[in-house]
Specification:
Strand content of chain A: 25-35%
Helix content of chain C: 40-55%
Number of domains of chain C: 1
Structural class of chain C: alpha+beta
Chains: A alpha/beta (164), B alpha/beta (126), C alpha+beta (412)
Order of helices and strands of chain A: HEEHEEEEEHEH
CATH architecture of chain A: 2-Layer Sandwich
CATH topology of chain A: Beta Polymerase, domain 2
Oligomer: heterotrimer
Order of helices and strands of chain C: EEEHHHHHEEHHHHHHHEEEHHHEEH
Shape of chain A: globular
Number of helices of chain C: 16
CATH architecture of chain C: Orthogonal Bundle
Number of helices of chain A: 4
Chain lengths: 164, 126, 412
């Protein structure tokens, strides 16, 4: 599958909501490529873009969401693996990133489209402190009750000392 | 019991009981419930979430009882020093009698450690 | 007669899985399970958080301790991710050695799983048998890497130890040994009537469910979903093995329905596949360097000047391991996200465990290979507020009883 066609389809449907995209192709000879595609999408059309991706092939979420922190916003990164057809080495990584302003840390759940993402969304709520709206199961995934509310392990500068 | 280990120690404990090392020929047997045990094997450092459960299990073991820590991270916290989720090495929670270091310890080391504990248990029973 | 009362049944949490022991809460109706809920986090050790304070080389050894059974897979995915960011090209010999060690690990992990699965249904002879033959591959790994478990074989840009002529001979001996035993073992596992009776039609995960819930590894392949990172995404030497394709129960002439038997068949077939892959790699092992030649300090200094993100994916014995790293001109990655196969597969327990008997819980739970290696777990049954306790032993006894019952039926 061509990465341009993914970007074009998304752009046709969502227009300027697609903020940026870049790709990285590593060639391994014999026509085998490792393809990674990064797409930035704004928060309003994030949910519908996942729905569009889902129609293109087998959509698998690969890791829990990492994030990048900036002065006033957080960039949340959703790494998907998309496979269109059953040929070898045709799976490409489609990495969707969404900007979320820090004073309104909320994003809509994608579990209605990719049910397997539930654990990852629960972990995101717990570790990064982004609120997932309409999540079917908002409990903490890992830390139980021993961490106080409002402490997000991956966002604290020093681990043990500052938490105690 | 596993209190936060990576499984490596657990599979080595099982390997100890398998035909190659065959610890059962010495009369060492893995039991399915702490109520039947003389010795509690603990692998891994203690995480915050499992802290209460390990105390419960310890209380279920009948007297006289011993605790053996298997693995480097159970003895000293090992590679997980800075972790926020750690309640401490096992000896911060339970009275430990024998430490078997290693990551993971070899089955021979585990048999040796259990033999040491056995000697101690015999003294206690007198 | 249908009873209106359902009981909660808690299993765990003292139970080892990948990063954490798991606690199950079942809703029980008579002998049937009608609902299952899973609670993670009992061995959550904050590895991702610790990794933010270690340098690039130290992290390899930290990640090795994510899981003791796939202690090759996690550092593998991490190294692939870092190499992806930095654009490091791995020498061909190193790629082949990585593949060989990875497949030896798969061999040991699948043998371990078959043993555990046999133990869960009370077939202890098979348990002892597979764990005994598993010692051979551990010996081989020890000779190759220096340790039975936690091999410390990998570094960024290559591997740390070469395969010498002596090692190669050992590997050939081990492969011969397993080839001889394979027929006998697969016959026990795939054709034994009692084993079939206990595994067929139990714990079904349909292909649609597997796809929706993002199942990975043998769990997905057992349901007929052709998903294998080695074939979907080019890593190590796998893309040079042209005949490689995902294993499925169709290879033994059975249409997959996603029950425990299918998942077992996939693992048994993968033992054979692993032997073939190692043979291929040994025959085609190229000469040359085994790493990029720059030492740890030089590597850290080079990575310190980098900025960017990378993904590393690898097919561990139990499914896809995926690491995402973000570098930002620092001595340590600013962020590293780890996903173990059981993390994806944990979700598939809910449909699998629904509508099965209590006695089948152990084998269904074990069927996705969550490293149910240690037998130390506890079970509480709560009925009408009063609390009775049955031990894991008793639950297993129930399972064994069923096994014996099934065997008696077949004897007649």
């Amino acid at each position: 599958m061509k990465t341009e066609s993914i970007v074009t389809v998304l752009q046709n449907k969502l227009g300027s909501h697609i903020q940026a995209s870049r790709e990285k192709i590593t060639n391994y000879g014999n026509g085998i490529n490792r393809v990674t595609l990064w797409i930035s999408i704004d928060r309003e059309s994030f949910h519908s873009s996942i729905a569009i991706l889902k129609t293109m092939g087998r959509l698998h979420i690969s890791t829990p969401m990492p994030y990048k922190e900036y002065e006033d916003r957080i960039e949340l990164i959703y790494p998907f693996a998309l496979k269109e057809k059953d040929t070898k080495f045709s799976e490409i990584m489609v990495i969707i990133s969404v900007d979320i302003p820090k004073d309104d840390l909320k994003i809509r759940t994608i579990t209605d489209i990719v049910p397997g993402a539930l654990f990852m969304e629960r972990e995101t709520m717990e570790m990064i402190g982004v609120e997932i709206e309409d999540i079917p199961d908002p409990r903490r995934l890992f830390t139980g009750n021993y961490l106080p509310d409002g402490v997000y392990p991956l966002r604290t500068p020093k681990s043990k000392e500052s938490m105690q | 019991m596993n209190t936060g280990s990576c499984n490596a120690c657990d599979i080595e404990i099982l390997a100890t009981l398998m035909p190659r090392y065959d610890a059962e020929r010495f009369g060492i047997k893995l039991v399915g419930s702490p109520r039947h045990a003389d010795v509690l094997l603990v692998t891994g450092t203690v995480t915050e979430k499992i802290k209460d459960n390990i105390l419960q299990v310890y209380e279920q073991v009948p007297e006289p009882k011993l605790v053996i820590v298997i693995g480097g991270c159970g003895s000293t916290k090992g590679v997980f020093q800075e972790s926020y989720a750690m309640a401490g090495p096992v000896d911060a929670i339970l009275p430990v009698d024998v430490y078997i270091p290693g990551c993971p310890p070899r089955p021979e080391a585990i048999i040796y450690g259990i033999a040491k504990a056995w000697e101690k248990l015999e003294k206690l029973q007198k | 007669m249908k009873s209106d009362i359902t009981y909660p049944l808690n299993i765990g949490p003292v139970h080892p899985a990948f990063k954490e022991p798991i606690k199950f809460t079942f809703r029980i109706e008579g002998e049937k399970v009608v609902g299952a809920d899973i609670d993670f986090g009992y061995t959550h050790r904050a590895i991702e958080r610790i990794a933010q304070e270690r340098n690039y080389i130290q992290i390899i050894y930290l990640l090795e301790r994510v899981c003791g059974i796939c202690s090759f897979s996690h550092p593998m995915a991490y190294c692939l991710a870092i190499e992806d960011v930095a654009g490091i090209e791995v020498p061909p010999r190193a790629r082949y050695i990585r593949t060989i060690v990875g497949e030896l690990e798969r061999l040991h992990s699948h043998l371990l799983w078959t043993g555990v699965a046999a133990h869960e249904i009370g077939f202890d002879t098979l348990f002892m048998y597979t764990w005994n033959i598993r010692e051979k591959v551990l010996d081989c790994l020890e000779e190759l890497t220096g340790n039975r478990i936690n091999y410390a074989m990998l570094t960024i840009g290559g591997v740390r130890r070469d395969i010498t002529a002596d090692n190669a001979q050992t590997i050939h001996q081990v492969l011969e040994y397993y080839e001889e035993l394979y027929n006998r073992t697969s016959e026990i596992l795939l054709d034994d009537l009692t084993l079939r009776a206990r595994t067929e039609g139990v714990g079904i995960l349909t292909i649609e469910q597997a796809e929706r819930l993002c199942a990975v590894g043998p769990t997905a392949r057992g349901s007929g979903l052709m998903k294998d990172v080695r074939v979907d995404y080019p890593v190590n030497a796998y893309y040079e093995i042209l005949w490689l394709k995902p294993v499925s129960p169709r290879d033994i002439g059975k249409e997959p329905i996603g029950d425990v038997y299918d998942r077992m068949a996939v693992r048994v077939l993968e033992i054979q596949q692993a032997i073939k892959i190692i043979q291929f790699c040994m025959e085609n092992l190229p000469e040359g360097d085994i790493n990029t030649g720059s030492g740890a300090v030089k590597m850290i200094n080079a990575l310190k000047k980098l900025e960017g993100e990378g993904v590393g994916r690898y097919e561990a014995p139990r499914g896809e391991v995926c690491h995402y790293v973000i570098l930002d001109n620092q001595e340590h990655p600013v962020q590293i996200k780890v996903k173990a196969p059981t993390y994806s597969n944990g979700f598939t327990w809910a449909p699998m465990l629904t509508n099965i008997e209590i006695a089948d819980i152990p084998i269904v739970v074990a069927s996705i290979d969550p490293c149910v290696a240690c037998a130390d777990r506890m079970t509480y049954v709560q009925a009408d507020g009063s609390r009775t306790t049955i031990s894991w032993e008793e639950l297993r006894a129930k399972s064994i009883q069923k096994y014996k019952g099934v065997r008696r039926q077949w004897m007649k």
